[in-house]
Amino acid sequence: MSELSYLSHARYGKDKVRVLRVVRDGAWHNIVEYNVTALVEGDIDVSYTKADNSVVVATDSIKNITYYIAKTSPHVLVPERFALHLGTHLVSKYAHLKKAFITVEQLRWQRIPISQGPGQTPKEHSHAFYRDGDEKRTVEVEVDASAGKDKLVARVTSGLKDLLVIKTTGSAFESFFRDEYTTLVEVNDRIFSTSIDLTYTFAPISIPKPADGEGKVFEAPFAGDAAKGTPWDGDALAAALRNITLEVFALDESASVQATLYKMGQRIIAENQHITTVTYSLPNKHYVPVDMKYIGVDNTTPKNAEVFLPLAHPSGLITATVSRK
Ligand SMILES: O=c1[nH]c(=O)c2[nH]c(=O)[nH]c2[nH]1
Q1: What is the ipTM, given to two decimal places?
Q2: Which of 48, 56, 138, 316 is deepest in the core (most CB within 10 A)?
Q3: Which CATH number does the domain housing residue 264 bear?
Q4: Range of 294's domain?
């Protein structure tokens, strides 16, 4: 049997580690809720090939470390920083683990606005929050300790998913290829709706290897101009890229989902120097005007289309990556 096969890939860890972290600033409370996956690679082959568990940091311990970093990291409120801290901790604490792969999905919690009386802007509550949608922020970090003795190399891809949008005009789909299979009619005005999945990749970053294995290097803040636009600036970047995405969606006179997607990606690359690639996955969520000709009502010519049937499936699926030259 042993001549026929070999272990060509091995990675393990804990999936779906759920954590809510409260950071108290006096009476002002900040929260993040994360779903974390923490996986490792390294000199672990014998655990598969020889049933030798001496190289296995138990997935239970990896879960405990995830909670330990959530408790102790000064970076816990920014998912990119938290993931970098956790990955760095794993590969610097355990020399035989060469790479850590951390995925963080952040769920939305918004402060509840409290009205202050007529004409006054509502105030955000200090410790009460609500879930304002299913959209998530995502972070994937690879921390690579095999790059050198004193440094780690980290590759960061951030993103958002399940951001649902719709616009009721400013979208057409015309002049597409036609043959005997074509039944779709050209339209110069239609509903455009999609559930946006976006990922954006940063140029690799270098982190000094913490000598003590405790990731203490992360106690020094990565702040100021040097951090701007890099993964250390994750919150600002996430807000800016979300804005670009929504603005292009709203303002573009869309010739197709493809053409609008490309404009979104181009603008992100143009305005964010540390981002190297942008990938969108945009399902075309079809809304079809209901045909009412049978009762003598025009609901299908674009200017009279007012009642639409949301189609659950099938949907188009338009994807692309836009990269820096
Ligand atoms: O924007 C679109 N792109 C397509 O590729 C396509 N195909 C289709 O049937 N409708 C659309 N709309």
Answers
A1: 0.98
A2: 138
A3: 3.10.270.10
A4: 160-206+229-325
Assess if residue 195 is contained within a domain. Answer: yes
Is residue 59 annotated as a catalytic residue, yes or no? yes
Q: Is residue 185 part of a domain?
A: yes
- Residue 35 Cβ contacting ligand 1 at under 6 Å: no
CB of 257 within 6 A of ligand 1: the answer is yes
DSSP string, 271-314: H-TTEEEEEEEEEE--EEEPP-GGGT----SGGG---EEE--S-
Question: How many structural domains are present in the chain?
Answer: 2
**For position 3, what pLDDT does the model report?**
87
Domain assignment present for residue 134? The answer is yes
Place of tokens 């043959």: 179
pLDDT at 225: 81
- Whole-number Å distance, alpha carbon 173 to ligand 1 midpoint, is 7
Q: List helix spans (H) across the chain.
A: 45-49, 59-72, 79-93, 234-251, 257-271
**Mean pLDDT for the chain overall:** 95
β-pair type (28-42, 97-107):
antiparallel
pLDDT in tens, 128-173: 999 999 999 999 999 999 978 889 999 999 999 999 999 999 999 9
Task: Single out the residue in 149, 168, 198 at which a domain terminates.
Answer: 149
Whole-angstrom distance, CA of residue 280 vs CA of residue 159:
9
Give 258 Cα–ligand 1 centroid separation in angstroms.
8
Which atom of ligand 1 has the smallest separation from the CA of 255?
1
Answer yes or no: do 136 and 181 share one domain.
no
pLDDT in tens, 216-251: 777 766 777 888 999 999 999 999 999 999 999 999
